Amino acid sequence: MLALDQLPKFRQEFSEKELFFSFNGPMSNEFVVQIGKALKQKMQLNDVSKGTVLRVFAMVIEQTQNIINYSSEKHYPVDPSGENVRSGILCVGFDGNSYHIFCGNQITKEKVPPLRQRLELISSMNRDELKSHYKEVLHSTPEADSKGAGLGLIEMARKSSDSFEFNFSEVDAEHSFFSLKTVVCA
């Protein structure tokens, strides 16, 4: 547990890492809408262009949807609306030129190889290849364990100003932690 006298240091670390928003814990679709509203308000207070606000907001939505749909840390009972509630972390930072959106969640180890393969393929593509791949996946049959059409990662790569970064860290014998970073130029 964080000791009260450590809070200033914790805040300073966030400032040094240029993070202005972070959440760690259970997420639901309703909660994500509230996160989005808070981020939009913060960015509008800083006179960020509407286009940049929308691109960052879209990236946050895509990343949190991945947490809600694929995190192995499920919470029961589910939200009163019946939707998934799963845990992960979301951080947003600004380095003076670009917004950096980070997310992470625990997944079962069996999902690492196919996910790594998809991410490596997507991150190797240029804009035209991503557009073509998007259309191809849109018209194909979704994978068995997919919660959508499988377009989220492709969409993030298309919207990211740089190629995205990802990492897998071992948690225990059955789980890994999946981390993803995308960038949106201001």
Tally of helical segments: 6
Main sheet record:
5 strands, antiparallel
How much of the polypeptide forms β-strand, as a percent range? 15-25%
Average pLDDT, to the nearest integer?
90
Computed structural class = alpha+beta
Computed over alpha carbons, the radius of gyration is 17 Å
- Gross CATH architecture: 2-Layer Sandwich
CATH topology value: Heat Shock Protein 90
Q: Say how many strands there are.
A: 5
| Residue windows where pLDDT falls under 50 for at least 5 positions | none
Count of structural domains: 1
Q: Strand order, biggest sheet?
A: 1-2-3-5-4
Terminal CA distance reads 36 Å
CATH class: Alpha Beta
Protein name: Histidine kinase/HSP90-like ATPase domain-containing protein
Pfam families: DUF6272
Describe the SSE topology.
Blueprint: H1 7-16, E1 19-27, H2 29-45, H3 50-70, E2 86-94, E3 98-108, H4 112-123, H5 127-138, H6 152-159, E4 165-170, E5 175-185
Antiparallel strand pairs: 1-2, 2-3, 3-5, 4-5
InterPro entries: DUF6272
Pfam family, one: DUF6272
Organism: Candidatus Lambdaproteobacteria bacterium RIFOXYD2_FULL_50_16
